[in-house]
Amino acid sequence: MSTLIKFTAGGATEVDNGFVYVIDGEPVPQGADIIVSLGRIKAEGEALLASGVRVGVQIEPAEAVEDLAELLPRLALVALAFPKFRDGRAYTSATLLRQRLGYSGEVRAVGDVLREQAYVMTRCGIDAFVPADGSSADEWARSAGHFRHVYQTAADGRTPAYAEPGRR
Amino acid sequence: MYRYDAIDKEFLTDRSNEFRHQVGRRLAGELSEDQFKPLRLMNGLYLQLHAYMLRVCIPYGTLNVAQVRRLAWIARTYDKGYGHFTTRQNIQFHWIKLRDAPDILDALAEVDLHAIQTSGNCIRNTTSDPRAGATAEEIDDPRVWSEVIRQWSTLHPEFSYLPRKFKIAVTASAKDRTAARVHDIGLALRRGRDGTLGFEVMVGGGMGRTPFIGQTIKEFLPATRLLSYLEAVLRVYNRAGRRDNIYKARIKILVSSLGAEEFGRQVEEEWAQIDAARADLPDTELARIRAAFIQPGLEVLPAVSDSYEAARAANPALARFARNNVSAHKALGYAIVDVSLKAHDATPGDANSDQLDAIADLAERFSLGDIRVTHEQNLVLPHVKQSDLPALFEGLVAVGLATPNINLVSDIIACPGLDYCALANARAIPVAQSIAQRFLDADRAELVGELKIKISGCINACGHHHVGHIGILGVDKKGEEYYQLTLGGSGAEDASIGKILGPGLNADQVAPAVDRLVEVYLAERQGEERFLDTYRRIGMTPFKEAVYVDAH
Q1: What is the pTM of this model?
Q2: Which chain A residue's Cα is nearest to B5?
Q3: Which residues of chain A does B39 touch, with a Cβ-Cβ cutoff of 8 Å?
Q4: What is the DSSP letter of A148?
Q5: Which segments in chain B show pLDDT lower than 70?
């Protein structure tokens, strides 16, 4: 089972990725917590959510995260797919989940997820990572927290430089 | 210029340390070239034909004396003793070793310089007016707004992996010295009827293989709402811009396919949903940034300097320099001086370490320590007392930087071309030199007047050929270098894309063809018309006939 790095108030920890990604058209495994596609949750949402397991949804870069708005309170997590690390659409998805849709549950980065992107991912409000490069939680946290200052507001709520007391 | 505080300095230190760590991982084999590439590119490091090239950011083209001296030192220590100023107001070093790059970035950070976002699919250095703060023409100081954008866009988490690179220009005068209309976003400062400050917002301009002139999507954006509006534009682009084809990934393609009106509508819809209190800078921060620009201590001087007038009357070379390279300053008794990096035997935009040191010394003595870089690959000393002009001129002459050709036929923009660049199809520098050589007669060049020639060594158009009054594009035809000429382009306030003159020419034919184009212009021009004006009035045919007369 792949490693999952979770950021919480207590720091970064490695936990078991307890969710199974169910490919469209495949049957849902009994009793397992699952991640399904946006299409599937739209088609089978009520049945899946009533089945007693925890349900997350994976958003692909081209999909509009706003389509999840009504379901968000019932989801265990939202996974954002990075088919290539260069594809930055999920950063907007993450930002909108946090800032516009008010989602406070887990937002998880999956796919081509590399330590070098830890900083931007964290700042966009992503708080769980399935690293593709074997990074440890410590390495991930170091990369994410490397900068003592940030210049702009973002979904992570960090105080931008202009609001720091030391700004001259 | 903008004064860095402890926070700005710590940020650069962190960035430099991060890159040192990444280079270490690359040299140790922990990162593949494919994984390392976007990281080095976001620190301005390209792999070129012969070596790594480091592109150093010069925020909106402003430098101080210590920074210029540091650039000279870097060129001497880590390169072959020269640097190349680019059409993005940056400087490139073409002979860099990967293992030296972290040390260079540390040396840059010590003088508040860096290479952040000088490459990669992110928001690049903001272009601005090299005469900012010195010209009476400006509505407001565009550097203030450029600095606002610099900070906002630096490591912006949502917009660091855009479909493609993204360039913003801020212009503040009726005369546009930033090529705003060929930027992804062009911002033109405007004064509203009620006296408040705002921007005309143009989007979707660009060059490359599909050139477009930017279109206005907002006539008047209140200046205080700038960042939320930029966020809306970038978000619409980040989501909808094409990612399947690198050549169709710029915002210009999105704007063109949606239409500017529809694109503007989508931006408005997005903008309406953004929380202004979070996204826009508080007035206090805008005031802080404005105040962090150290105002030059300008003296109260008489409008005319008698000693300068006398020197000019006595020295024809100084008089020529004054006619072409010296412009009016907002303060009486001062002048703005353009320093040409286009000597006829030089590589356009190149300056060697000795020249850079000399510029720093001269700026310290005569320009209140302020140096600017223009997108036309020249330098500007913005605050020179008229009475100092003769001494400054002699100082420039001594290091070969007094070429009196600003905006004239030999003031050519050229990309590095096939001499350096892995993308190029053809050489650009020797073509520029052959044209400059042909117009060595300074009287004739002045008679011709303003004529903007721009040369690109390939279709990526780094030499801005699309917006040259005469544009020259290098192409590869069955292994041979050919050059396609275009006429009628402009990157200024009267922006337009040039049209193709005719079949490609070989390298030897380019300078004679330019000569013939100039002869047609001189024969046809009326009154004060520039080459561009005459072309626009009489059209392509007479020019075409003159160049291809031998083919008939």
Answers
A1: 0.96
A2: A168
A3: 116
A4: S
A5: 551-552
CA atoms within 13 A on the CB side of A130: 21
Q: Would you call B157 an interface residue with chain A, using a CB distance cutoff of 8 Å?
A: yes
The domain spans of chain B are: 6-109, 142-291, 306-398, 413-551
CA A135 from centroid of its chain's CA atoms: 17
Confidence bin at A1 (pLDDT 50/70/90): low
Residue among B498, B501, B496 nearest B513 (CA): B501
The domain at B142-291 falls in which architecture? 2-Layer Sandwich (3.30)
B10 touches chain A (CB under 8 A): yes
Q: Are B384 and B336 in contact (CB under 8 A)?
A: yes
Tell me yes or no: is domain A3-163 CATH 3.40.190.10.
Answer: no
**pLDDT (0 to 100) of residue B390:** 98
Cβ contact A107:A125 at 8 Å: yes
Please indicate if any CB of chain B lies within 8 Å of the CB of A139: no
Which tens digit of pLDDT belongs to each residue from B435-455? 999 999 999 999 999 999 999
Record: fold of B6-109: Sulfite Reductase Hemoprotein; domain 2 (3.90.480)
Neighbour-count burial for B517-541, b at 16+ CB within 10 Å, e otherwise:
bbebbeeebeeebbbbbbbbebeee
Q: Helix B226-240 and helix B142-153: axis angle, to 10°?
A: 50
Whether B6-109 and B306-398 share one fold: the answer is yes
A166's enclosing H/E stretch is none
The CA distance from B148 to A151, in Å, is 10
Nearest residue on chain B to A91, alpha-carbon basis? B158
ipTM of this predicted complex? 0.97
Provide the chain A residues 27-86 that lie in CB contact (below 8 A) with chain B.
61, 85-86
